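note to self — DONT lose this again. spent like an hour looking for the file last time. sequence + predicted structure for the chain T wanted, 349 res
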Amino acid sequence: MTLTIVAGHDDIADIPTPAERITLLGRAAEWGQLQSALTDGRLHHAWLFQGPEGIGKATTAYAFARRLIGGEGVLVDQAHGEPSFHEDHPVLRQMAQGSHPNFLHIRRPPMDRGEGFRTQITVDEVRRLNHFFRSTAADNWRVALIDPADDMNRNAANALLKILEEPPERSIFLIVNHMPGRLLPTIRSRARTLRFSPLSAEAVARGLAASFPEQDASSITAAAKLSGGSLRSAYHQIVSGGLEIMQEVDKVYGAGRTDWRHVHALADSLSQKGREEAWGLVRDGLFDRLAQDARRAVTTGDQRLGAALAEFWRSETGRWQDAAAFNLDRKQTLITFASGLAAVREKNR
């Protein structure tokens, strides 16, 4: 089936988007919770899909929206307990094309002029929900996907909160959230949280093998291992030279003495035009390693180092988000990260 997909700011060329995926890879447990809530008649009006980027939250949201709007006939049992969908089903096609009257996907909009996308979800985008609910009948589920909520500016978040406080009849909000600290506590309090853990390496490898049947098994295994449980990251490993980039990340993040010459050289390279995907890979690789080190320190009894690394992760996450939102200098962003990491390690030796 060939679909005309509404483009998104984070699409990867030639890789199926969450709207196109017909199998929910590695998310049988999360799907089971949603199904149970639906069949038991306790489906909350707002669900917060929370977890790292690229692990299937938006894909799960699309799958569940199809289930609500398209009915039982959409589902097909799979060997791994994962739901699948008939690729010629009209609901799948309409939702992927952004034309189904009972489904609205709120995300960063295109720029008013020229190419590219805005750096935030604006209040005008969230206000589209008011028209959406007014113009659709409540005789079937009406599903709004906010993806990700992290991208909302303050006005947009407040506008969403107002709608969540008095939800329309027979409506459901599926809210994707990568980092809890970027979301208003009042929004979190009005939604039921469904936590997503990173995918298993086996699930990532299956996803890669399906998308890249010509790729050799050793590259698939290496990309899955380096992905941190993120299928999105694994895709970048294959299509964007990610395996080589991760070697560069290891040199920056290495636990020994910081090689400042290498840090500056990498920062200069990533500051060039057209290196957006490589920059994203470096960002994800650094933060994955930082989170792993924090967990490792806690489990080995070094609570002081674990707490310091966790706090550094939190503060740097916000700083990199701001850098992306305001298009700040990449070189300075990376150098500041490396300097801060070195200081944390030195202080907690």
